[in-house]
Design brief:
This protein is mainly α and 203 residues long. 56% of the residues lie in helices and 12% in strands.
């Protein structure tokens, strides 16, 4: 790809729209068997909305104003997900026939979550890691993701962005920080499941 081509792709990604279907696709396709408990899915959607609003990918991006619950209802009406009734809580599944459509929408927004997904991925594989070591590994790996997904982020601003995302993940309970040691949540918790879904975005 030429330099001009890369600039065009980066500009397109900067102006991406995080719409209800793309956010649903990012999450549901990152789960086991493309299915998720309704309450957990709603929480994950609201969490992704929080990430986009508190640490926006770019000033040109747009984010849906719908809540997690409203996104679920919207996607049900469009018939891209299917509700499976269960006495302990309904399960929402991706409709197999819509897999190609969901993949298209997921790919349009994947770059927006590349950095927090990388952090989550490293933490899943290293449940306890020194904060500076995590940042060091991120700094080594992220340039490859940046090139692959046409991300505008300057490496000069990467340390600040990493710090912001680490704090946001801590605020949501997806990691804890004690004396500069970062730890993943208990593997039996819903926070760990949420962290795993986020990690699967760039796997």
């Amino acid at each position: 790809i030429t330099l001009t081509g890369k600039r065009i792709m980066t500009s397109i990604n900067d102006a991406a729209v995080a719409n209800p279907v793309s956010l649903m696709s990012l999450i549901i396709l990152s789960t086991h068997k493309h299915a998720m408990d309704e309450k957990a899915l709603e929480w994950q959607l609201n969490f992704y909305l929080t990430l986009l609003r508190k640490a926006p990918f770019s000033s040109a991006m747009q984010v849906t104003q719908l809540t997690g619950a409203e996104i679920i209802q919207y996607c049900e009406r469009l018939e891209v997900i299917l509700r499976q009734k269960h006495p302990f809580g309904d399960i929402l599944l991706a409709i197999p026939e819509k897999a190609v459509l969901l993949t298209y929408f997921r790919n349009n927004n994947m770059h927006m979550f590349a950095l927090p997904s990388l952090i989550a991925c490293l933490l899943i594989n290293n449940p306890k890691i020194d904060k500076e070591e995590l940042k060091r590994v991120c700094f080594q790996v992220f340039p490859f993701i940046k090139a692959e997904l046409s991300i505008h982020c300057s490496l000069k601003t990467l340390p600040e962005l990493m710090e912001k995302h680490i704090q946001l993940l801590a605020d949501e309970g997806l990691l804890t920080i004690t004396d500069n040691l970062i730890a993943a949540p208990d593997t039996s918790s819903h926070q760990f499941i949420s962290l795993s879904v986020l990690a699967n975005t760039i796997k």
